[in-house]
């Protein structure tokens, strides 16, 4: 008939009695020749569809066999025949691991038979694992920050020692005025201004906030334009403002009523100021820690206790 060309038949190998007696008697107590013949007959009839083969297996005459048993015996016989006949044209011999397949199905059955309580408990354990990993990352980050502070303190201590050595070399040139030179050097060191990031941060906080433009030009304009960020607001500041809006769960696009426009613009300006204050606080804490490490490096055996109110 016209569609006969699509009815492809699988090439099921056959074996002779001599081949079976010589090579295929691997486990006579488990598989006899009659059982093996019946297996290959079903494979030819049902195109190696093992589920159907297991269903059509004659248990009354050949005993009870599972799908894994049928697969294991079939692929074992095919592999032995290919090796004996030296079929180089055949594909790589497939080795079926029946024990692994049984364990896999058993595990799937246990997974399917879980109760709701067990599923919730597993989900809770997964959530706890995520929290533990997050705390671990946070500890690693703090450790890295502390290492940076310590390395900076060591570097500053080295620079301080180098300066002291330079000062001592200069003092040896004028031995008669050692005491005066030491006093002058101490005064100079005390009077030298210390470079700090705090001043720059304070100036940035003072100039923080957003100045929204007032649309009073001629022509028609939308009130929502009043809530548009000015062009002088940088991308970094806009991104920080977006994160703060998400943090406080504020709608980023409220209805443009007159009162809402004014309040929303003031709120975003205050949020930008909040971001600047957070940055200033972090910078000041870093400066305090840096000064503490410098003090402890210059004065061994002494500890500088920073009040908790300043941190």
TrEMBL record:
Matches recorded under Pfam families: DMAP1, SANT_DAMP1_like
Domain DNA methyltransferase 1-associated: 121-304
GO biological process, one term: chromatin remodeling
Residue spans of biased composition, Low complexity class: 165-175
Domain DAMP1 SANT/Myb-like: 1-79
Coiled coil: none
Keywords: Chromatin regulator, Nucleus, Transcription, Transcription regulation
GO terms, molecular function: transcription corepressor activity
Entries under InterPro entries matching the protein: DAMP1_SANT-like, DMAP1, Swc4/Dmap1
Basic residues bias spans: 176-189
GO cellular component, one term: NuA4 histone acetyltransferase complex
Gene3D superfamilies: Homeodomain-like
Official protein name in the record: DNA methyltransferase 1-associated protein 1
Localization of this protein: Nucleus
Main location: nucleus
Chain segments carrying region Disordered: 143-200
Keyword Transcription appears in the UniProt entry: yes
Claim: Transcription is one of the keywords in the record: yes
């Amino acid at each position: 008939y016209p569609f006969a060309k699509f009815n492809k038949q699988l090439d099921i190998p056959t074996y002779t009695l001599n081949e079976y007696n010589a090579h295929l008697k691997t486990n006579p107590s488990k598989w006899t020749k009659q059982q093996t013949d019946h297996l290959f007959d079903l494979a030819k009839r049902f195109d190696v569809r093992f589920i159907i083969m297991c269903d059509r297996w004659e248990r009354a005459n050949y005993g009870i066999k599972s799908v894994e048993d049928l697969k294991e015996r079939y692929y074992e016989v095919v592999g032995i025949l290919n090796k004996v006949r030296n079929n180089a044209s055949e594909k790589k011999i497939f080795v079926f691991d029946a024990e692994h397949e049984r364990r896999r199905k058993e595990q799937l059955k246990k997974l399917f038979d879980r109760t709701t309580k067990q599923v919730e408990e597993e989900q809770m354990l997964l959530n706890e694992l995520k929290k533990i990993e997050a705390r671990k990352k946070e500890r690693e980050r703090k450790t890295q920050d502390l290492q940076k502070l310590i390395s900076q303190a060591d570097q500053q201590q080295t620079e301080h020692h180098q300066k002291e050595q330079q000062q001592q070399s200069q003092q040896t040139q004028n031995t008669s005025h050692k005491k005066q030179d030491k006093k002058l050097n101490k005064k100079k060191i005390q009077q030298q201004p210390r470079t700090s990031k705090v001043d720059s941060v304070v100036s940035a906080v003072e100039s923080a906030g957003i100045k929204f433009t007032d649309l009073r030009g001629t022509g028609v304009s939308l009130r929502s334009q009043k809530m548009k960020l000015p062009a002088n607001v940088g991308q970094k500041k806009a991104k920080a403002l977006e994160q703060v809006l998400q943090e406080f769960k504020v709608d980023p696009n409220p209805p443009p009523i007159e009162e809402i426009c004014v309040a929303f613009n003031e709120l975003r300006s205050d949020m930008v100021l909040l971001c600047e204050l957070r940055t200033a606080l972090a910078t000041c804490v870093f400066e305090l820690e840096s000064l503490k490490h410098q003090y402890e490096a210059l004065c061994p055996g002494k500890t500088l206790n920073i009040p908790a109110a300043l941190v």
